[in-house]
Design a protein that fits this description.
By secondary structure, the protein is an alpha/beta fold. The chain contains ten helices and twelve strands.
Length: 276
């Protein structure tokens, strides 16, 4: 008995556009838009794993870009997730100009930025909250996002003008975690604190001069943790508030910990206690 023939690839060939010249108008527009990602309202996901994480999370692509020497990877992604978005194929040198990594993996996806405003800050059954108080290093933002997912912090809050968890470097550093979390953008920290406290969320700020974490007794949440800027610490609005501050007891002559490490330690302790 003859084996059934395999179904043809899903990739609709008519949706593919091949660009070979850096003078192509579409390509030049892409280069400009990628350079202004923070203003575009879109996210740029680079690498097969990150693209697949986004598709598995239900994020709808508006454009896929593949390097011609890695076209099989692109076709595999499209066939697996039944993607119907417009697809561009570029030679490796043009693809590298769009990439943000030293060794590009041959697949890039763009999509609408999946973030919310302060009116969607409080949503039931989303775990604890992590507030990023003007962090400057996207690597720290991504690492905090990864720890937040691991310890039950389902919502990330950041202030307009600071590093977004959805920036290219932060996305990569998160290893895709941020794609499975709610990202909320606020104009100022004070409004976010007012909404959280008004909803009955217990808020802590990480501060070297605060109460020792070893002395704190957590109960059922939800909780919110504020992590301040790497160089300057908490913003004045947080320092001037009545929020409880926590510090991490340390031995030896160590003065402080990296923001991502310190945040992960406190989130681990809080994460032992589920939300109500």
């Amino acid at each position: 008995m003859r084996a059934a023939a395999e179904p043809p690839p899903f990739l609709p060939m008519q949706s593919i556009i091949v660009i070979t010249s850096r003078h192509n108008e579409r390509y030049k527009a892409l280069v400009k838009s990628f350079a202004r990602q923070s203003e575009s309202g879109r996210i740029i996901l680079e690498g097969r794993r990150l693209v697949e994480d986004a598709l598995a999370s239900g994020i709808e692509p508006d454009l896929l870009i593949g390097a011609s020497d890695r076209e099989e990877d692109l076709r595999s992604v499209v066939d697996t997730y039944r993607v119907e978005a417009e697809t561009l194929i570029l030679p490796p040198d043009l693809f590298r100009r769009l990439a943000d990594t030293v060794n590009p993996q041959g697949v890039i996806m763009t999509a609408a930025k999946p973030e919310y405003g302060i009116d969607r800050l409080i949503v039931p059954d989303q775990g604890h909250y992590l507030l990023l108080d003007s962090l400057a290093d996207p690597g720290n933002v991504g690492a905090l996002s990864r720890s937040a997912e691991a310890f039950g912090f389902g919502t990330l809050v950041y202030k307009a003008g600071a590093v977004s968890p959805l920036s290219r470097k932060a996305l990569r550093a998160s290893m895709g975690s941020v794609l499975r979390q709610r990202v909320v953008r606020v104009d100022n920290t004070e409004d976010a604190l007012r909404v959280l406290i008004g909803a009955g969320v217990t808020v802590y700020a990480l501060d070297a001069g605060g109460r020792s974490l070893s002395q704190e007794s957590f109960e059922r949440g939800p909780y919110a943790l504020i992590v301040g800027n790497e160089a300057h610490g908490l913003s004045d609005s947080v320092k001037n508030s009545e929020i409880e501050r926590l510090s991490i007891p340390m031995r030896g002559n160590t003065e402080s910990l990296n923001a991502a490490v310190a945040g992960a330690i406190v989130m681990y302790e809080i994460g032992k206690h589920p939300c109500k």
